[in-house]
Amino acid sequence: MSEHRFVLVDFTYMDRVGVLRLYEAGRTYKLSRAIAHAATKRELVAKQRPAGWIPPSMFQFPKRLTEAEVIEAEEELKALQRHAFAIVDPKVEF
How many angstroms separate the first and last alpha carbons of the chain? Predict the structure, then answer.
C-alpha cells in the first residue's frame, strides 16, 4: 500500500535492494506506508503542501532516511494495526 506525500526538504533513502532514491523538496511522491510514516516523524514530508511553505536553501545537503528508521516505522504500523484489530475483535491473534 502506498501514500502520496509532499516533500518538505530534500532527502535520500537507500532501499533494501541498495537503490538510492532522492526525493526533492516541493514535489509529491508516492511512498510506501513505512517510508511515509518514518519521513513524517522526521518532518521530511507532509500530506499536502503547507500554507506559506518556502523551499529550503539549495545549498543544504539532503537529509538521510535510514533503513533502521523505516524498519522501526514498519513495526510501529504493525503494532497500531494489531491494536486496532484487538479493539474491534479481541479474539483475533497475531
Answer: 20
Spacing of C-alpha 35 from chain mean position: 3
* Residue 57 half-sphere exposure toward CB, CA atoms < 13 A: 3
pTM over 0.85: no
- Say how many C-beta atoms besides its own lie within 10 A of residue 33's C-beta: 13
CA distance 93 to 85: 9
The amino acid occupying position 60 is Q
Query: Per DSSP, what are the bridge partners of residue 46?
Result: 6
Residue 43: all three cell numbers together: 518532518
Nearest residue to 21 (alpha-carbon basis) of 70, 59, 54, 60: 70
- pLDDT tens digits for range 4-54: 999 999 999 998 888 999 999 999 999 999 999 999 999 999 999 999 999
Backbone torsion region of residue 45, taken as left when φ is above 0, otherwise alpha when ψ lies between -120 and 50, otherwise beta: beta
